[in-house]
UniProtKB/TrEMBL annotation:
A GO BP entry: DNA transposition
Protein name: Transposase IS200-like domain-containing protein
Source organism per UniProt: Streptomyces malaysiensis
Domain of life: Bacteria
InterPro entries: Transposase_17 (IPR002686), Transposase_17_sf (IPR036515)
Annotated Transposase IS200-like domain residues: 2-114
Molecular function via GO: DNA binding; transposase activity
Length: 118
């Protein structure tokens, strides 16, 4: 999955990405899913999630984005308010692709190689 902040603002730094990963791991656990890989750049995040067939993708995405937006705004209000205004943190869209045909190791390597900001 790939999520971008509203207006594709460059809101992420190393500390915010680390906190975002922690929050998203917890949300996945609550859904019985596993966040297998996470990384990002200043204006988007990549997630490799293994989730059971009983989980609705749209509900998982909604929770990942909703909970992370709330927690990041609570933890980093001054920084985030420099880049985003109003109530929205994430863009309403997202990319979700299945990697059933690609080896999981290749997808993990791609996500690991994303340039993480300092």
């Amino acid at each position: 999955m790939v999520f971008t902040p509203k207006y594709r603002r460059k809101v992420f730094d190393g500390a915010i990405l680390t906190r975002c990963e922690e929050v998203m791991r917890k949300v996945c656990t609550d859904f019985g899913a596993e966040l297998r890989e996470f990384n990002g750049e200043t204006n988007h995040v990549h997630l490799l999630v293994h989730y059971p067939p009983t989980v609705t993708l749209s509900k998982l995405v909604g929770s990942l984005k909703g909970v992370s937006a709330r927690r990041l705004r609570q933890d980093f209000p001054d920084h985030i308010n420099q880049y985003l205004w109003g109530e929205h943190f994430w863009s309403p869209s997202y990319f979700a692709g299945s990697c059933g045909g690609a080896p999981e190791a290749m997808v993990k390597e791609y996500i690991e190689n994303q340039k993480r900001p300092d």
